[in-house]
Amino acid sequence: MPDIVEALIDGGKATAGPPLGPALGPKGVKINEVIAAINEKTKAFAGMKVPVKIIIDEKKNFEIKVGTPPVSALIKGELGLASGSSNCRTTKVGNLTVEQAKKIAAMKQFDLLGATVKARVLEVAGNCVCVGVTLDGKDPKVFQADVKKGMYDAQLV
Predict the structure, then answer these.
(1) Distance CA 43, CA 83 (A)
(2) 3-state secondary structure of 76
């Protein structure tokens, strides 16, 4: 039965310190090799938190599976934001276009519950509420209502 270590790391910046070092040390793998492999696989997600799973077999060989960052991190990355709004009800920190929302929905398609592009974009819009980002120049809840009314059907195919 393989050992599995899961952690949330900064893309391309994993270190032998916590959380990985202490978790990998007792497993008997070469920590520096694991860290180098993780950094190589996650460098495209620089500036974002990325879930990684390290699977270690009996012979101390390892396999790394990289998840996609949370939707909120993808929204912030798409807009170049360091953080979301400190008060998402009153302070908006950016605006996501419909195309950007579709791009994020496509990146997360296997993690989101929606079966259609339209449903997945609605989930992305829900995350925009928490980050303090408008969508297509509108409050995300207004955008969601407009999508449900069919106003974006041509774009969300």
Answers:
(1) 20
(2) helix
Length in residues, the chain: 157
Would you kindly state where each structural domain of the chain is located, as residue ranges?
A: 3-66, 71-148
Per-residue pLDDT reduced to its tens digit, 108-154 = 888 899 999 999 999 999 999 999 999 999 999 999 999 999 999 99
Q: Given CATH 3.20.20.140, say whether it is the number of domain 71-148.
A: no
Question: Is 134 within 8 Å of 92 (Cβ atoms)?
Answer: yes
Instruction: For 134-147, give one letter per residue: b (16+ CB within 10 A) or e.
Output: bbbeebbeebbeeb
Reference 46, options 69, 19, 65; nearest CA is: 69
Closest by alpha carbon to 64, among 4, 17, 121? 4
| 69 secondary structure, DSSP code | P
* Sheet of 49-56, strands arranged across: 3-10, 49-56, 62-66
CATH 3.30.1550.10 describes domain 3-66: yes
Domains 3-66 and 71-148 share a fold: no
- How does DSSP classify residue 45? G
Identity at 15, one-letter amino acid code = T
